[in-house]
Each structure stands twice: as C-alpha cells, then as structure tokens.
Design brief:
53% helix, Rossmann fold, single chain, alpha/beta, 236 residues, 5-stranded parallel beta sheet, 11 helices
C-alpha cells in the first residue's frame, strides 16, 4: 500500500479505530519480542550456543535486539552470556573517498573502547566482500551511515542501507541506522532509484558534520551527540 493511500485511510478513521489499530500494532510487536525471548531462553538453557553474535544470526536479529532481551530471569541465563559495555557497537558505512573522515570517527570511538567495524582495520582478509558486509550488519548494534555525494550513490553503501532497513523492519521498527552528513547531498540532490530509501534516511535526525574539518570544537560537539546516542545508560 502506498504511503499516500495509508495517510488517506488514517485521516478517514475515527479516533477510536485509530486507538485500536495502535494497540494491535503494539500487540504484534510485543508478540515478536516474546517469540525472540523464548528462543533465547531455550538456547541459554540448552547451553548450545554461548556467543551472542551466533545467537543473533540464528534468530535473524541484530545484537541490539539480543541485548534488549536481557530482561529474561537471571536463573535462565549463564553469567556473562551477553557482553555489556558502556556503548553500543558500530558498523561504519561509507564510500571509499570518505575513508579519511571515517578513520577519524573510528579512532575517536576506539579511543573510548567502542567496538567498531571499520573495513580497512576490521575486515577478514580473503573473505568475500558481500559476506563481510552482511555479517557486519548482523553483528554490530548500530550502523553509522556517512551521507555525502561520495558515498550515497555507491552500490555497496546502498546495499548496506537496504540490509539495515530490512533488519529494522524484521525487528518491529528497531532504530539501527544512524545517519550523519558531511555535505548537503542527502537533503538536496540524492535521488536513489528506490525513493523509499531516501525517505527513510531523511526521516531521521541527521547529525551535521559539515565544516568540522575546520573546527575541532564543532567536531567534538557533534561527536558527543553520537556518544550520547550510543550510550546504554540512557536506554535503561
């Protein structure tokens, strides 16, 4: 159903019906989480898998969702089954020309002990590129997308956006994608073949890093906002 048609239908529904639809949506998403929780509990009880990354892959969810399922009772889970760190892990998505900026972000994050996938430093030699990127989207909790004229039109970057958006949908609307921009391309000139991709990126809060190469203070201010978004403390 097209978005315009969905909006039209919503406008024609009375408030009581809209409330019922919202409750149904919440119920469906809650059932999805319940299924995942039961799966995780069963895995932990059988002790067949101890690696949270493997658990995420078997459940076809991201590590972010596995961390959310820590609400299971303590007696069901072996100690230390899920690693807890102050910050969520990050997959850096960018085009080759933006590697210097991506490397700067990588250094800032690793200096704070954040687990980061940065292709030149993290990729396994000899592994197929598609597999490397696909596994990264599964393994890391957030995808930090560098939006620029140099990155957004590259097939590899578009594929990574599609994969993370698909994961968000499967996980009931989880917010995994975090876009940042270093120019105005994403807002004014980006016109991908799939219009919905551009809409889903633009419909988020996008942190503007343009001009930060000339202002260390501005860079630190923007980077602090990323740290706040990645912090586990505010999400508890």
């Amino acid at each position: 159903m097209k978005e315009s048609e969905t909006r039209r239908i919503k406008l024609e529904l009375n408030p009581e019906t809209m409330k019922e639809l919202d409750e149904l949506k919440t119920h469906i998403e809650s059932r999805r989480i319940d299924v995942l929780r039961r799966f995780l509990i069963e895995v932990l009880r059988n002790k067949s898998v101890s690696d949270p990354v493997v658990i995420a892959q078997k459940a076809d969810v991201s590590l972010q969702t596995i961390y959310k399922l820590q609400s299971i009772s303590v007696q069901d889970a072996p100690a230390g089954i899920v690693e807890q760190t102050p910050f969520q892990s990050v997959f850096l998505s960018y085009g080759g020309p933006d590697e210097p900026f991506a490397r700067k972000l990588f250094k800032e994050m690793t200096d704070r002990d954040i687990k980061v996938f940065f292709f030149p430093e993290t990729a396994t030699p000899g592994q197929r590129l598609h597999r490397t990127m696909s596994e990264g989207i599964h393994e890391y909790e957030r995808v930090l997308l560098i939006c620029s004229a140099n990155s957004l039109d590259r097939p590899g970057v578009v594929n990574e956006i599609e994969q993370v958006l698909a994961r968000e949908a499967r996980e009931g609307g989880a917010e995994l994608l975090m876009p940042i921009t270093i120019d105005d391309y994403v807002f004014k000139r980006w016109n991908p073949s799939r219009v919905d991709i551009a809409r889903q990126v633009r419909d988020r809060v996008v942190i503007d890093f343009s001009g930060t190469e000339f202002s260390p203070k501005k860079f630190q201010d923007r980077f602090d906002r990323i740290l706040k978004a990645l912090s586990r403390i505010q999400k508890q």
